[in-house]
Amino acid sequence: MNLWEQPASAGLLNSIFPTFSQFCQTNLNKPPVEMLGVLQDLWLPLGIKLASQRQGLGRPLIQGILGGQGTGKTTMCQILGLILQHLGYRTLCLSLDDLYKSYSDRLVLTQQDPRLIWRGPPGTHDLDLGLNLLDQIRQGKSPVSVPRFDKSAHHGAGDRTTPEIVKDIDIVLFEGWFVGVRPVDPDVLNYAPPPILTAEDRVFARDMNRRLSEYLPLWQRLDSLIVLYPTDYRCSMVWRQQAEQQMIAAGKLGMSDAEIEEFVNYFWRSLHPELFITPLVTSPTAVDLVISINSDHSMSADSSWFR
What we know:
The chain starts with 6 loop residues before the first helix and ends in a 6-residue tail after the last strand. The protein is of the alpha/beta class. A 6-stranded mixed beta sheet has the order 2-5-1-6-7-8, with helices on one face. A two-stranded antiparallel sheet has the order 3-4. It has a single domain, classed as P-loop containing nucleotide triphosphate hydrolases (Rossmann fold, 3-Layer(aba) Sandwich). The chain has 11 helices and 8 strands.
């Protein structure tokens, strides 16, 4: 039987649609009917699946969500939070960005390694902060102090802001551009694709690969891993350019196409999607669900996972 032939599922769709409709108009600037298909075919079944997993665990569920720039990690977490709230579960949306080291600590880090010109790559996060938080949540502690990060602070360099005090967490949606990513054989980096072009680029990639091992204890706290996987990783560049152009058109500050290219290439030099994410999605054990994302942002997933 198709999931949506079940009365309970249809009832959930009707129940959540008013809230979802408001979210689409306010946050996405899109007509709700345009997003109804992905709500019905992906987000609602996924929310039901997560609720079932949480119930089976008997403790808070830590769900990892891996996706590059423009893949819709934040949007998916917000919508899943709405769905799970309707199902009676308290959800915490946590970003890898929330675990960044403070501005002052990153200044020291940049002095130690001038290659870390932007926050983001391995080494720029406070891993103990993340480990302590996830351990407290898994153990059922309530309330917990959740770190938050203000990207606009210090003229865009970013800094920690006031933590959020949260009670009675059932499900954590822990998202980030390399959440769950594991180190690869360093020899692979000898034949890395662009923009890893020079000997200096390869040294940087090897160093980031080595630092990635420090994140493994954090990934061990994940109960499950979902990957938002563009059919072509280079779509992230186009999506970021489109987003910045929309910001500029709305009268906000935004990067030029050249600045975006430099910015995105920096991340690809540190952890290239073809070298670090593709092996995950082709592994039979490393990932629980792969959601393919096309260039037009349409999504598809393996429906068998929802059964």
